[in-house]
């Protein structure tokens, strides 16, 4: 007799980890066993393994591996099994208590990742069992083995893209796509300059720009493995790679004899690095700040404002999602276009290190190290 997808999954694994979007339930509630039509029964597991923090602080010290209870699946909810979830800088800032939005404590860490739908509530029409989905917004808490979530908080992805590409699609590539699309009308042959070029956003900018025929000037911090990093970024499609120190050298003037000055500057660092980007921006160009890794303010020279009339803007992909929450096509079209690039081999996931949830402390410590060009990803 043909079994349902859920029954088949239970038979294969004998265990599903599930967790609630809420942490208020302290007492475990046991579900009744699941009885299949062949009289074989499997007990449904009512808990989930999760990385939880009860206080803000150093992530490797305040995050703990805990077991959480699972609520019943509501009519508008789905049960999802996490497949792969990354550690992003914003996740760490949230644990530290320094991010713009903070969930109520205790909270499960993580804002991004790909999961698979295992069960659906009876009123859910937009998702089905087996779908791959990613969070529509920040704050769902993805560092766990499974969750019961509202269907409206998730958006489906095609299953024919690599797992790590799906897991890292919702934040960095979307940030890169929007910044390249929304601030300047860029055409093939135009130039974009960016710092933090080896970051997740930076790597996505390089690849999306290359696919559109846009040149990129990519700025990185000096380091022992600079040549190796430069070669890797150029393999992704970077046109030029410079260190921050080299931006004031004569070769920059020579560069702009054969390459147009940038219309767009993308700043993920702040401080002097941002000021250097502004120096090379063309008149009436735009600098968009999306991060502040240096933890220093952006200083704008008066001459850049008066004589070049540059525009200074900011971007936060979470705010973009909220501003466009009622425009389903805007999010869907962006994800579809990014997936087309992924299938064509023009947009790959950043270099990732796959780790198990049990190894979370080492993963968190590695994610905090400077000069890291690899992303830690929990693979369930």
TrEMBL record:
Give UniProt keywords alphabetically: Fatty acid biosynthesis, Fatty acid metabolism, Lipid biosynthesis, Lipid metabolism, Mitochondrion, NADP, Oxidoreductase, Transit peptide
Write down the EC number: 1.3.1.104
Q: Name one GO molecular function term.
A: enoyl-[acyl-carrier-protein] reductase (NADPH) activity
Q: Does the keyword Oxidoreductase apply?
A: yes
Q: Which InterPro entries match?
A: ADH-like_C (IPR013149), ADH-like_N (IPR013154), ER (IPR020843), GroES-like_sf (IPR011032), Mito_Enoyl-ACP_Reductase (IPR051034), NAD(P)-bd_dom_sf (IPR036291)
Q: Which residues form a coiled coil?
A: none
Subcellular localization, as worded in the UniProt entry: Mitochondrion
Pfam families registered for this protein in UniProt: ADH_N, ADH_zinc_N
Which residues does the UniProt record annotate as the domain Enoyl reductase (ER)? 63-380
Q: Which GO terms describe its biological process?
A: fatty acid biosynthetic process
Which cellular component terms (GO) are annotated to the entry? Answer: mitochondrion
Q: Which family does it belong to?
A: Belongs to the zinc-containing alcohol dehydrogenase family. Quinone oxidoreductase subfamily.
Name used for this protein in its record: Enoyl-[acyl-carrier-protein] reductase, mitochondrial
Q: What is the lineage of its organism?
A: Eukaryota, Metazoa, Chordata, Craniata, Vertebrata
